[in-house]
Amino acid sequence: MLEPYQVDRLFLLIGENPLPNWVAAVSLLRDGGTPYLIHTTHTQKQAVYLAHLLNRDVSKIQTAQPICLGDRHANAHHICQRIQALVERLPGRFGLNYTGGTKTMAVHAYRTLQAIQPDAVFSYLDPHKLAICIDSDRDDCLYIPVSVRLSLAQILQLHGLTWKTEQPPIATPTLPQAATALAKLHGNLQLAKTWRNWCHQELRSKARQGNIWQREAELAQLPPLSLQNLPEAFQQVLCQYFDASQTISLSIACQGRFKQLRQVCEWLDGTWLEHYVLQQIQAIAPLHGIHESKMSLHIKDPARPYSQWDKFEFDVAFMRDYQLFALSCTTTDKHSLCKQKLFEAALRARQLGGAEARVALVCCHDRPELLKTELEIVTRDQKLAVFGRQDLEHLSQKIADWIGQNN
Q1: H helices within 127-271, ranges in order?
Q2: Distances (CA, A) of 260 to 218, 267, 287, 308, 313
Q3: Which DSSP helix (H) or strand (E) runs through 368?
Q4: The Card1 endonuclease domain covers which part of the protein (predicted)?
Q5: Residue 106 in contact with residue 116, Cβ under 8 Å?
Q6: Whether the Cβ atoms of residue 371 and residue 341 lie closer than 8 Å to each other
Q7: Phi, then psi, of 54 in degrees rounded to 5
Q8: Residue 73: beta bridge partners?
Q9: DSSP three-state, residue 304
Q10: pLDDT given at position 138
């Protein structure tokens, strides 16, 4: 569909988020074509990140050429000169994708290129239709759906970010059957409360010091944890999947399942929900065009590369073509905590994935529709989703419906 509109040389206006520029370059350049990255002093870093990724990962095109306007992004004469010098000197068909940059840059670049080469291709990436819009003076705009795959690593690299190499994301859920059983039990409010009480009174009180899990050597010395105050249904899950009896040994539970005892504690304390969410996503992935999904994405802070603290973290994320879906997970039912989790995820996902990004919260809230309404007002995002306690058992279908609503 896009072949008639592909060009030899494509001007890309660089904005705060270079993701649309990536999609446009991969979609609209012919084999051997050249991207020209028109940027300002303010967006120079974005141009550098984009150029690096295009040059490394897109073999069909020529080396990206930066065009810096400095601080003169509103100077019509300067923009005209830079574009005119290239168009008059170089052969081939030109195009302009004006998704990024400022409105002033777009107007001046559009007018200049149109005057020199009337048959140039003008386009922008529509975040709502997930399509490239081909502009035309004579007819209605033509919207062409785009299927360009971008990985989670690439979407981070477009912003100069990486995840921690010593703490890479998890691609395969741990004990998904056990997590599924816990999710089903958490559909019952009273059962969920007893599990949370056990985590606080037994697991945390013995395996944590303040807000930090004890060191591995100390965890290895802990006596088995009592399951006496847990309902029979939970005890059965722990017996089946963790070799527990009336007690659970962290060391025995770790064998063949986890790399560290701390991970056993984290799983029991709540990350089981992230593993469950990842498993539910992967169950529907082939039917819904999901080509990558991971959990526990710990993003390194480039300003403090040796810090133990993350710049931020995504609980679970997946990609459909170039569209980022981020899911924040929490076992709490407290309104304020749920709201904070979703707001933070929405902010980070929008920074990385732009207007195309979609965000959801998976939690144990009993009135998810109320929480969703509040967040829609705050974030001005009508496409976010909140999955509450009653959604847990059939989460894969709920996620599939959410994806369908975003097509």
Answers
A1: 152-157, 176-185, 189-198, 205-207, 216-220, 232-242, 250-254, 261-266
A2: 12, 11, 35, 18, 20
A3: helix 368-379
A4: 267-403
A5: no
A6: no
A7: -65, -45
A8: none
A9: coil
A10: 66
The overall average pLDDT reported for the chain is 93
The predicted-structure confidence for 66-84, as pLDDT tens digits, reads as follows 999 988 766 777 888 888 8
Q: Give CA–CA dist 70/55, Å, rounded.
A: 23
**CATH 3.40.190.10 assigned to 3-148:** no
- Tokens describing residue 28: 């609209």
Dump the DSSP string for 230-253: S-HHHHHHHHHHH--SSEE-HHHH
Which amino acid, one-letter code, is at 374? E
Residue from 290, 47, 292 nearest 151 by CA: 292
10 Å Cβ neighbour count for 98? 25
Strand partners, 299: 163, 312
Q: Is the pTM of this model over 0.90?
A: yes
For the domain covering 270-405, report its CATH number: 3.40.1350.10
Phi, psi angles (nearest 5°) of residue 234 = -70, -40
Q: Which two tokens stand for residue 330?
A: 């929490």
| Nearby residues of 175 by Cβ (< 8 Å), 6 or more positions away | 241, 257, 267, 272, 275
Dig out the tokens for 79 from the structure: 């923009």
Sign of CA dihedral 17, 18, 21, 23: negative
Predicted pLDDT at 291:
98
Question: What are the C-alpha distances in Å from 24 to residues 34, 45, 69, 321?
Answer: 12, 19, 21, 13
The domain segmentation of the chain, as residue ranges, is: 3-148, 176-269, 270-405
Q: What are 202's two structure tokens? A: 């037994």
Long-range contacts (CB closer than 8 Å, 24 or more residues apart) made by 382-386: 383/358, 384/342, 384/346, 384/358, 384/359, 384/360, 385/358, 385/359, 385/360, 385/361, 386/338, 386/342, 386/360, 386/361
- Give tens-digit pLDDT for 373-391: 988 887 777 789 999 999 9
